[in-house]
C-alpha cells in the first residue's frame, strides 16, 4: 500500500477478517471483503492487492484465494 500506512496490528486484524471470510467460502470476492472490513471499494482493493504482493492471497481473475502456506495466514488461524 504505497500511499497508505497501517500499523502491524491493523494489518493482522485485516488479515484475520480475510481468513474468517474464507471459512465461509474459499473464493474471496472484493465486495465481500469490502463489506466485512467496512471500507470503501478503492481502499479494500488496495488492501487486497497488498495481500497479493505479500503472498497472503492469490488473485485469479476478479477473485482471490487464501494461500495457506503464508505465515500471516497461519498466525491468524490459530
Automatic annotation (TrEMBL):
Stated name of the protein: Selenocysteine-specific elongation factor
InterPro entries to which the protein is assigned, alphabetical: SelB_WHD4 (IPR015191), WH-like_DNA-bd_sf (IPR036388), WH_DNA-bd_sf (IPR036390)
Pfam family for this entry, one: WHD_3rd_SelB
GO biological process terms held by the UniProt record: selenocysteine incorporation
Species name: Pseudomonas fluorescens
A Gene Ontology molecular function term of the record: translation elongation factor activity
Key words of the record: Elongation factor, Protein biosynthesis
Any single GO CC term annotated in Swiss-Prot or TrEMBL for this entry: cytoplasm
Signal peptide boundaries: none
Amino acid at each position: 500500500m504505497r500511499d497508505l500506512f497501517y500499523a502491524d496490528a491493523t494489518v493482522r486484524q485485516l488479515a484475520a477478517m480475510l481468513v474468517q471470510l474464507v471459512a465461509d467460502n474459499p473464493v474471496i470476492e472484493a465486495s465481500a471483503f469490502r463489506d466485512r472490513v467496512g471500507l470503501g471499494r478503492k481502499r479494500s482493493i488496495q488492501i487486497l492487492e497488498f495481500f497479493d504482493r505479500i503472498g497472503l492471497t492469490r488473485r485469479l481473475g476478479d477473485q482471490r484465494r487464501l494461500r495457506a502456506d503464508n505465515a500471516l495466514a497461519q498466525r491468524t488461524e490459530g
